Description:
This protein is mostly beta strands. The protein has one domain. The protein has 1 helix and 23 strands. Strands 4, 5, 6, 7, 10, 11, 18 and 19 form an 8-stranded mixed beta sheet that branches. A 7-stranded mixed beta sheet has the order 12-13-14-15-16-1-23, with no helix packed on it. A two-stranded antiparallel sheet has the order 2-3. It is globular and about 55 Å long.
Amino acid sequence: MSYSTCGDCAGCGASSAGDPHLTFAHGGHADYRGEHEQFFNFLSAANTSVNVRFKNASFSNGFQDIDGTYITEAHAVYRTINGSFFNVSFHSDKLRPKISGAKGVAERPGFIISTCVPAGGSALPDPADASEDQRALLDIGDVERCDEAVAQVEKDGTLTLTFLEWILRIKPKDVYHSGKVTTWSHKIDLQMSPRVPEADMKVKPHGIIGQSFDGDDVGINGKQDPYTEATPGPLLVTSAMAEGAIEGEAAEYKMPSKFATAFKYSRFDRLSAPYRDVAALKGTKVKASAAQRSAGAANTLEGEVHQRPRVEL
């Protein structure tokens, strides 16, 4: 089995951004409100799990006032080949102020903490029990390793996590209040891509976004909130939870804590698992475009060109 160092499998990227808008692997879109201060699983795969946390937010998009949510935290747990546990947390609501670089580049270190704890058994260790030499607070330019796993913070504050079969990019973003008041000012965008072909994975992934890596070239559209470009538009209270694009109910992906791995569709401890049942999904099915099926598909956000589809939070 070969592994990509850049996560550029053909048509295999997915992401979350905004408030929160999901872009699934192979195409397809949905919105996902989540619940205030609650954790939901976005990716569950062999020895890999990613949970995110939502916060309520009131804001304007320039056309209408919105009562919605943003994703403000991401928490990943990875079990290495040697059995160590690598836990990484990204807190956007605890970001430090921007720093102007020599060339005018705004650097924004995030509050990122990682632990690498050797595990003698199958139980998930509590990161709170990690010793000082097992815990690291990451800053711009830092690289932390735990066996084959790598966490690296880029100069714009983006955290890149490289695991055996996955690459994750967590990017801090400003919240533009447009006159609205919230108690925090940052959110995160999340991007995930497998490093191996989906067909080569013995354990097929799941989670709200992870399940869309389902081995075909069909995208699924789920429920989306009715945004408008009319001015002034009506107040929008978001409610979509990706209905139609995910197996089961949204509540089944709710997690009791940031590093929890067990839920109905968990793949973390599995040795084998099938793809989701696409035929049972009620969302609109769309054929993936040629760009979505091939490496090098360009996706632009704020002037930045991405080589694979994004999942925006």
